[in-house]
Design a protein that fits this description.
CATH architecture: 3-Layer(aba) Sandwich
Helix content: 25-40%
Largest sheet: 7 strands, mixed
Structural class: alpha/beta
CATH superfamily: Vaccinia Virus protein VP39
Strand content: 25-35%
Number of strands: 9
CATH class: Alpha Beta
Order of helices and strands: HEEHEHEHEEHEEE
CATH topology: Rossmann fold
Oligomer: single chain
Length: 197
């Protein structure tokens, strides 16, 4: 999207659809929710956390434009679904790190991810009070699946040159692009997410 319009690369859109077909949502839901996996709505996990609405996940991944071989940070990895989808998109030459603040959810998401045979991706508990995890050279892509009240500059600073960050701020989806040391921010529709803690 650009200022509310979908910015669709047909190849990437097909890659996202393929990843979502291969890595079916029900594999990342509690057993009592699996018969609702086809519903295009968020589904509850526990302690106020949710498995995001599939159409929203697809929109965010298309907006992120994940290249093969990228280094990707997944903030708020929850059940592990988005981390697995990102891993499928980057392929075995890439790296995906999912971070989840709730230790129980992080452990469960990690076990869900491990069942997918995507060893270039992992989920770890987030460090309380720290947002993201800086790496040398920055992340090529950052996906955030929870909503802060303002755009966190600490995450923008973790982007590599040429990197993209997709994050809902309050109720508006934001795309942040870093090009030649400059930052551009565009907005892309309204969504509802759990608050970023």
């Amino acid at each position: 999207m650009r200022d509310g319009r979908e910015d669709t690369d047909p190849t990437r859109a097909a890659d996202v659809a393929d990843a979502m077909r291969v890595l079916a949502r029900e594999r990342f839901l509690p057993e009592e929710q699996r018969d609702r996996a086809h519903e295009d709505r968020p589904l509850p996990l526990w302690r106020g956390q949710t498995n995001s609405q599939p159409s929203t996940v697809a929109s965010m991944l298309r907006l992120l434009q994940v290249p093969v071989g990228a280094r990707v940070l997944d903030v708020g990895s929850g059940s592990g679904w988005t981390t697995a989808l990102l891993a499928r998109l980057v392929g075995p030459d890439g790296v995906v790190l999912g971070l989840e603040l709730d230790p129980e959810l992080a452990a469960w998401g990690s076990s869900n991810l491990a069942a997918c045979d995507l060893p270039w991706a992992r989920i770890e508990p987030a460090t309380p009070g720290a947002l993201g995890r800086p790496v040398d050279g920055g992340w090529d892509r950052i996906l955030v699946s929870a909503s802060p009240r303002s755009l966190p500059t600490v995450l923008v600073d973790q982007l590599a040159d040429g990197g993209r960050l997709v994050i809902p701020v309050r109720s508006t989806m934001h795309l942040v692009e870093r090009v030649a040391g400059r930052t551009r921010v565009t907005t892309h529709g309204s969504y509802t997410f759990v608050p970023l803690r």
